[in-house]
Records
---
Amino acid sequence: MKWIGHIPPVRAAALVLLAAVGTYANSLPNGFAFDDDTIIRGHPVVTERRVADALRSSYWPEVAVGAGLYRPVTLASYALEWKLWDGRSVGFHTVNVITHAAVSGLVFLLILGLSSVLPALVGGMLFAVHPVHSEAVANVVGGQSCTQHSLSWEPAWRFARVGCHPGRGGFACSWWGPSTLWVSDRREWRPPCQRFS
C-alpha cells in the first residue's frame, strides 16, 4: 500500500473522473424516461425553445394555477439543451454524466484540501461510483441534482479551509446564498440560523 501514497494528485483526480464517467457511460444511449417525458418532451417551454418563458412557467407543464414547482433556471437550461441537441436524449445524458464527473472531481478536491491524496482518492471514488447517484445521473431531470451539488461545493470548500475561526481568514462566506453565509458577532462564529435562535 506504500505506492498509493505516491500517486500524484492529478493522476488520482483523473482516476476519480474516469470512474465517474465509466460508471454512468451506459446511460448515454438511454432515451427519455419517467418524468423526462413530461418535464422535457411534454413541456412547450422546452420543446419550443422559449427560454424567456421559463421565468413565468411551472416546472410541471400541466398544473393548476398557483400550484407546482418553480424552477426557471432548470427549465431554461432544458430549453437550451433541447435546442443544442435538437431534442436528442443522448445530449442530455452526456451533460448529466459530465456534470457528475465534475462534481466527483470537486469532492476529491474538497477532501484533498482537508487531508492527503489517499483519503481524497477513496472519498472521490466512493462518491463517483455510489449507486445512490443512479437516478440523478441516468434520468435527465435528475441532472439538476448534479448541478446543485456543483454549486454547493464552493461554500463547503471555503468553510473547510477557513472554518469558524476569526483569526484564520475572518469572514468566511460565499455569495451562493444565505444558507452558506457565515457571520460573526463579538462572542463566537456561527451560522445565521443559530445566530438568531
Note: The CA atoms of residues 76 and 126 lie 32 Å apart.
---
Amino acid sequence: MPINIDDWQKTDGLPQCVKTWGSQIKRVVLWIPTIIVHLWMMFSYYVYNMVIVAKLVESPHIKAIMTILYHGILTMAFWSYWKTNLTVPQKMPEAFKLSALELRELAEEEVPQSVLNRNLPIKTRTKSGKLRFCARCRAVKPDRAHHCSMCGCCVMKMDHHCPWVNNCVGHHNYKAFCLFLFWCLMYLILLITASLNWFTVIFEGGPKAKALPKESAEIPLMFFIAVAFSLSVFGLFGFHTYLLTSNRTTIESWSKQNFIRESVKGFDLGSFQNFKQVFGSNPWKWLVPTGRPIGNGVHYPVQYVNGELSDGLDSIVNGGRGDLIANNSDDLFETTDADDDDYHERGSGAGSISGHEAMRLLREPLNR
C-alpha cells in the first residue's frame, strides 16, 4: 500500500515558542550522559592521583611511572571521545537528493526515470525489492546509510546513535569510536590495577586499614565503579571488534542485507582488509584518532558467493569504480562542501554491475 508522503512531512501544529523550548530542553537532556562521563573522570582523577599516587605510593619512581601512564592513557581516551563527539556526519551527496515530484513518485512505489538516469551506486534494496529512500531527507539512501531521528539526517554507514558521546556513530567517526572503547578499557584496567591492593587492605580491615589516610575511604567506590564500567565496556569493545573484522554495523548485525544481485555475499573482505577499511594502512596511526575516514561513505566493495571481490580495498581510497557509475559523471557525487574532495567517486571495474544496471534491476521482482 503506497504511503502518503504528506504524513511524513507534516508538522505537529505546536506553537513556535513551544517547539523552541522543547528543542532547547532536548539539547540539554542529550548532554546529560556526557556530563556523567566527565564527572566520573574527575572523580577517578582525584582518587588515582591525589589519593593513591600522592599519599599511598612511597617510591618516587613508581609515582612517576604511574603518573605518566595515567595521563598518557587519559589523553588518548579524551582525544578519542571528543573526536567521536564532535565529528559531524558527512552531508548527503547531491546525486542522491530528490525533488518533491521524484519523492512523491517513490512514495507511490514508482522509480522515476530521472532517478534511473543518474546511475547511482546502489547494491542493496528493501526486503520487498524496492529502492531505499528517505522522505525526511528527500534523498535516495546510499548503501548502508540509515536515517537517525536524533541527529535528524541520514548517516553514511550508520552503526548506532550513542547517547554517551551524544552523536551518531558511522562512517565519519567509527575509527574514533573504536579507539575510544579501547582507551577507555585501558583506563579502567589501570584504575582497577592501581586500586586493587588498597581496596583489599580496606576490605580486610585491621591495623593497615586504620593507618590509611581518611581520603582512602573513596578507593572502594572508585574500584566498584571501575569494575562495573569495565565489564560493560569490555563487552561493547568485544562486540565492535567482531563487527569491525566482519565489516558489519550494529544495524546490519540484526537486519539482513538485501542485495540487488543474489551473487553478492556481503561487504566482508576478510578480517585484515576490513580492519584497514576503517583504520587505514598506516600502522603508526592505528592507535591515534586522526585522519579522515577512508572513502566517501557511499561506495563499498563487496564479496561474491564464489569468494571474488568486486574491487580491491584501494578502490575506496583511489576512487575505483567497481559497481559504481558507468558514464563518467563525476559531478554526480559533489557535496555541498566544495573542499570535500574525498567525497567523489570514479572508475569502473570489469565484469561488475553498473549503476544503470542496478537501477534497472530494482524494477524486477526480488526472486528472479
Note: The longest helix spans residues 174-204.
---
Amino acid sequence: MDDKTRRWHSYVMSQARATALEALLAKFRWTGVHADFAEVFRSAAFVASIGPALAEPFEPASVSAVVAIEARGFVLGGLVAQALGVGVVLARKPGAVHPGAIEELAAEPDWRGRRLTFGVSPLAVRPKDRLLLVDDWVETGSQARTVSSLITRLSGSLVGVSAIVDHADPRNTRRTRSYRVVAFNRSASAHGQLIAARPPFPAAR
C-alpha cells in the first residue's frame, strides 16, 4: 500500500468510526440496568460503519478470523469479519444446538453472578490462528478471558478484543489480559453519554 492509498484508507476508517460513534450515541439507551441496542442496530448508518470501525485498530495484527460471542456478538462479528476479509468463529452459550464435537469452558461469574459455559467447535479454530474477539460490551472481562482460554486450548491465540464499550475495572483485568482491548467509549464524550446515565446495578445473588 503506497502512502497516498494509506492516507485515503486512514481517512475512510476515521470517517467510519465517527459515523458509528454518532449513530451509537444518538440511538443507545438504558432499559432498566440493561444496555439497549435495539435502535442502534436498526440504524443503517451504524450497521454500515461499525464493521470497519471495530476492525481498523487491529488491521496490522494479521487477524486470521473473528471470534464472536452469542448473541449480539454474532451481528458485530460478521460485520467486522467482512471488513477484515476473514471468517467467523462462533462462541456459543448453553441451550444452543452444537452439532459435532465442541470444546467447552465455564466462565467466572458475570456482573449478575451467572457462570456461563462457552463452547467453540474445534473445526473452527486452526493451529496458529490469530483471532480477534468482537463484542458489544465488556463488563468484567470474564467472557473474554474464557474465550481466550478456549482458543489457546485449540492451538490458536487471541490477539485482541474490539468492543463498543469497555467498562471493565482495569484493576481486575490488567493482570489477566495478554491481549489488547479497544473500545469506542474511551473517548470522554462517549464515556459520559454511555456510562454516566446507567442505573445502579442490583446486588448480585
Note: Residues 3-27 form the longest helix (25 residues).
---
Amino acid sequence: MSNQSILCRRTKADLEEWLRFRKEAGLRIDPETALVEWCYGQTLDPYGVIGNLPEEEQQVGREYFACSPEEEIWVCFYDLPDATRDRLWELHHAKLVFPAGLESLNTGDIKAKFAELVRQ
C-alpha cells in the first residue's frame, strides 16, 4: 500500500501533522544546494494525500518541489518560505519552466536555429 493511500485514510489531525513536518523540512532547505523537480498533480492537493477532491476542485497543473540533499524530504514550493522559493526560481528557472519533454535539448542550438529561420 502506498504512503499516499495510507495518508488518505488518516484523520485530519494526522494530515495536519504530516504537512507540518513538510513545512518544517522546508525551513531547513538551502536554496543554493537544494534539488528541484516538477510533476503534474492536483493543484489543491500537490502531495496527493487529501484524496477524494470534489470534481469542481480537481485541477491538474505543474507542481514544484524542492528537497535538501541531506534529508530528501520533498517539499512543495507552496510550503517553502518566500525567500527560499524566490531563490529557487532564480537558480532553476530554465529547468522549471522549459516545455515538458524538451529539457534535454541544447537551448543554444534552438536559439541559433530560430535566428537562422528569422533571417531567411
Note: The two ends are 58 Å apart (CA to CA).
